[in-house]
Amino acid sequence: MSDQPWSAPTADGPVRGTVSVPGSKSVTNRALVLAALGADGATRHVRGAARSRDTTLMTGALAALGATVGTAAGRAGTVDLAVTAPPTFHGGHVDCGLAGTVMRFVPPLAALADGPVVLDGDARARERPMGGIVAGLRGLGVEVTGEALPLTVAGGPHPPGGEVTVDASASSQFVSGLLLSGARYARGVTVAHAGERGVPSLPHVAMTVAMLRSAGVEVDDGRDRWHVAPGPVRAPVVLDVEPDLSGAAVYLAAAVVTGGEVTVAGWPDTDLQPGSTVRRVLEAFGARVELSGDGLTVRSPDRLDGVDVDLTEVSELTPTVAAIAAVAARDGARSRLRGVGHIRGHETDRLAALAAELGTVGARVTETEDGLVIDPAPLRAPTRTWQAYADHRMATAGAIVGLVVPGLAIDEVAATTKTLPDFADDWPALVTARVGA
Ligand SMILES: O=C(O)C1=C[C@@H](OP(=O)(O)O)[C@@H](O)[C@H](O)C1
Ligand SMILES: C=C(OP(=O)(O)O)C(=O)O
After folding, report:
1. Class of the 25-228 domain?
2. pLDDT tens for each residue of 250-300
3. Residue 363: phi, psi to the nearest 5?
4. Radius of gyration of the chain measured on its C-alpha atoms
5. Which residue's CA lies nearest to atom 10 of ligand 2?
6. Locate the Enolpyruvate transferase domain: which residues (predicted)?
7. Residue 304 C-alpha to ligand 2 middle, in angstroms?
8. What letters, b where the CB count within 10 A reaches 16 and e where it falls short, cover 11-21?
9. Which of 30, 127, 201, 346 to mutate to test the pocket of ligand 1 (most atoms within 8 A of CB)?
């Protein structure tokens, strides 16, 4: 990894082009878990996955517990992963890196192992919330040592399961994690949420439910209560991963902030990811959005509107939306982003990080309890290097701002490999191509 700051390319005109984005890490890491839980020992193929840090951490975790994982080159820079479930998971050490999906989805699966599983991760991962997983597992009869990473999950291999109430207001992944392995618990798993705030990022829980059902698992989903019946997990033998729409939003933002036009090829017509919400958020800035056989095309308006948006359901979009909002504020528009207090527990405290980094280019950003207010202010040359805080989405937010702020350099563009392994090459290629400009 280079320790030289990365010079973000500046757009000298409207950015125009077509991009392909790699498979969604959220879909991939669920598919990998379901494949590893397979009841019949068949090999499952997860196709079109990104070779990203988060997916690599998940395959590493499953292999550490005894699953067999093979990797082959897939279409357009993706990988096809072949996973075979072990007869019984065994104990071992799991590196969660900074991946929420690994640190929240693997402990419930580790309870099926016949020996203890120790989970740890990056320094920041030790600060990310784990309360719902730890309390949830204990309530389901699983012995867990520790309250956050590093954690030890005592082996089962036959956890009792049952009903548990957790506070999932810090992360929807608490619910998803407990549900994903729940069919393998003796009584199944019922998770209820009780907390001062609601469960954020609910479309990610819906993704979990949909993928469990496609693996033949019986799931009831009510308001703040989910039930997974005990039974075999039979994931489809081939699971195609759809493109990562949160990653796609970064490329679409390049059109929005430069008066350009960008198409993301292969925009899926399923509802696994909240694609329509991504579209609505970009439209709120005044962008025109069109879905055609070529993909999803976003065209910038002449002048950006400010937005007042509740991003609870799509909280991982916040850095991208904040970057666009800072550009809109340059042109006099005020924006307010709400409903995302919990992202202080994401890869970094994203509200503090966005306020600090956007501030280095002159943006007037105020943190609120649950979001950000971005007031009109001109953007100017950076006062220092943009800090990514090892957060992929802080790095991509810096790249978006860099399109219109010459001289912006990012301390660690390699953070983008968490979900977008080729970003550092693909982004300059898009910015400088200016197809048809
Ligand atoms: O389950 C998932 O794949 C995810 C759920 C969400 O987490 P939170 O509920 O913690 O926001 C989202 O922000 C994260 O990027 C991915
Ligand atoms: C919050 C995110 O990731 P994680 O899965 O690590 O929580 C994210 O990708 O924006």
Report:
1. alpha beta
2. 999 999 999 999 999 999 987 799 989 999 999 999 999 999 999 999 999
3. -65, 145
4. 21
5. 316
6. 12-426
7. 28
8. beebbbbbbbb
9. 201
Point out the ligand 1 atom lying closest to the alpha carbon of residue 104: 1
Residues 6+ apart with CB under 8 A from 77: 20, 22, 51, 421, 422
ipTM of the complex: 0.99
Pairing status of strand 219-222 against strand 225-228? antiparallel
Nearest ligand by distance to the CA of 315: 1
Q: Whose CA is nearest to atom 16 of ligand 1?
A: 26
Place of tokens 């279409």: 75
52 assigned ligand-binding residue: no
Percent of the chain with pLDDT over 90: 94
Break the chain into its structural domains and give their ranges: 6-21+244-433, 25-228
Q: Do domains 6-21+244-433 and 25-228 have the same CATH topology?
A: yes
Of the pLDDT bands very low, low, confident and very high (cuts 50, 70, 90), residue 2 is low
Q: Which of 417, 21, 393, 48 is nearest to 244 (CA)?
A: 21
Give me the active site residues, please: 316
